[in-house]
Amino acid sequence: MSLNSFDVTRRTPLGQTEIRISPIAFGCWGISSKNWGEEPNKKDAIKVLDAAWADGINLFDTAAVYGGGFGEFILGEVSWKNDAVISTKVSAKQKPLQPIAALNQYYGSQYVINEVDKSLRRLERDYIDILHLHNWFDEWMPDADYLFEILDQLKQQGKVRAVGLSVPDWSNANVCDILGKRIIDVLQLPLNLFQQWATKQVIPVANQLGVGILARSPLSQGALGSLAYNIESRPENDFRKRRYGGSNLTTYMSRLQHICELVGITQIELPYYSIAYCLSQPGVSAAIIGMRTLAHIKENTKPSNYQFTTVQIKNGQEFDQGYPRFF
């Protein structure tokens, strides 16, 4: 079997919600923040968003903190915004640091309500399709009932269609305790060849409970894509240069080579394989990909790019056994 049936215009059910989405989703962080080395530009960003929509992508994922609201603002500017599926996130009032303080210091009742209203104004919409909590820590679980009640109220009011949880980059199997409460409709979690922990610990539980799954960072912020070709030439304010470049470069390149040998692909095929790997996981409805140029749109919406056998997809799991974490 191969994944040659991939079609970006296909609409996939998202868990047990009534939301239907394209298998490729547009991640807005890259066009909203200067952390990637370029200053965000409204005109260019809207041009890229329009191209993604025209090519069949209908899910656009952003957050209130992307560019200080810029990620939501630019989506509010496009003409087709009311026909798209828009996912955004309400972040904690302050960045959670150890030791973790009480939940209400990060997600107070009125704070959450106000943040949702701010997002709606920036998006120029009456409702948010998927509202994620941007941060979550296990320490908050015993006191979370009031927060879940607020999220449910927002759904009842029609301001939110589905409630989601954006899981941190590290292994967080305890998120399954929240799923058991049946409050969360959608999980957005990191899933790529460097981070496969969710396939063993979280995804099976989400599937059992009918929770929709969105795979974030399928290319590990470009580390499994074109970044390998230009990492040393990236601007100094590109966070990926600090993570993968310098003294880490040799290790990074050797791991890319290991993946290609393990799966039987070339480095040019690696980004497409990485996306296909994510989409092949049970229950995953879409892979969220950051795209900053028109070329990125064309590359990520061509069905012919994703033809890999079942054996090749399975072989990608072997890489995780040797490298449980990347740096």
Tell me the layout of helices and strands.
Elements: E1 12-13, E2 20-21, E3 24-27, H1 29-32, H2 42-54, E4 59-61, H3 70-77, E5 85-90, H4 109-123, E6 128-133, H5 145-156, E7 160-166, H6 175-179, E8 186-190, H7 197-201, H8 203-209, E9 212-216, H9 227-230, H10 239-244, H11 249-263, H12 270-279, E10 284-290, H13 294-300, H14 310-322
Parallel strand pairs: 3-4, 3-10, 4-5, 5-6, 6-7, 7-8, 8-9, 9-10
Antiparallel strand pairs: 1-2
Task: Explain what the structure shows.
There is one protein chain. This protein has 327 residues and is an alpha/beta fold. The protein has one domain: TIM Barrel. Helix content is 38%, strand content 14%. The protein is built from 14 helices and 10 strands. It has helices at residues 29-32, 42-54, 70-77, 109-123, 145-156, 175-179, 197-201, 203-209, 227-230, 239-244, 249-263, 270-279, 294-300, 310-322; strands at 12-13, 20-21, 24-27, 59-61, 85-90, 128-133, 160-166, 186-190, 212-216, 284-290. The strands form 2 sheets. The protein has an 8-stranded parallel beta barrel with strand order 3-4-5-6-7-8-9-10, surrounded by 4 helices. α11 runs antiparallel to α14. It starts with 11 loop residues before the first strand and ends in a 5-residue tail after the last helix. The model has no long low-confidence stretch (mean pLDDT 90).
